[in-house]
Amino acid sequence: MNYIEHVIIPERLLLLWIPLSGHRMSRIVAELQRDGDNATLRYLCGDRDFELAIGEGFKGYPYLPVRNEKYIDVLDIFTKRLPPRSRGDFSKYMDSIRIKGETYIDDFTLLGYSGAKLPDDDFTLIHPFDNAITPFEFLVDVSGTRYQDVGKYYERLDIGAQVDFVPEPDNLWDSNAIAVLYDNIQLGYVCRGILPEFHRWLKQGLDVKGTIEKKNGTSDKPRIHLFVRVS
């Protein structure tokens, strides 16, 4: 098991939303900004992703309807997506996101590293790593596995196996897409929330290594997590 050794404290997080039907491509709809010990939320009104999300049925985060003005003091709303630190198995939760249990990180940072995904909604929080200084590490889901022929290979995907990151400038859905390949098998794509920085790391010639860290889906619904090191 790999562990994150260099925690990058984010100043902002991105809120991703996935439509309930259709192509189900994730959309970046809002930004959470650190504000002292709290946070603000601003919908990205006018951005292409946001406008596409509105056309696909996005109504806003629960209890925070879409508006142009930012919301203040929203951290408590989002930390409800996290398990209580008082839980006896909280250290197991930290293990699941590959942060050692004795490592203290604040709630805003924990939201970014965990993604705070709930089983019954379509939101995920993304740490964009736009303030990261090498070296650092993070755990990330492979996006779009449902659209790849991963199922028949899922059982033989080896934990610890290295993957390749290959930009796809001709991708019809997103010219910024970066494919994730394992032994020339396409597993899916790099999460859209960190694509700008991922491209920057590759263009700068940084050493970006990804390995398969865990699988917790099925061959019908494959879910693959990568451990990524940037140095």
What does this structure look like?
With 231 residues, the protein is of the alpha+beta class. Helices cover 16% and strands 29% of the residues. It contains 5 helices and 12 strands. The protein has helices spanning 48-55, 75-79, 90-96, 107-114, 195-203; strands spanning 12-17, 27-35, 38-43, 60-61, 64-65, 123-126, 136-141, 162-167, 178-182, 185-189, 208-215, 224-230. A 6-stranded antiparallel sheet has the order 7-12-11-8-9-10, with helices on one face. A 4-stranded antiparallel sheet has the order 3-2-1-6. The longest helix has 9 residues, at 195-203. It is globular. The model has no long low-confidence stretch (mean pLDDT 91).
Characteristic key phrases:
globular, 16% helix, four-stranded antiparallel sheet, alpha+beta, six-stranded antiparallel sheet, 5 helices, 231 residues
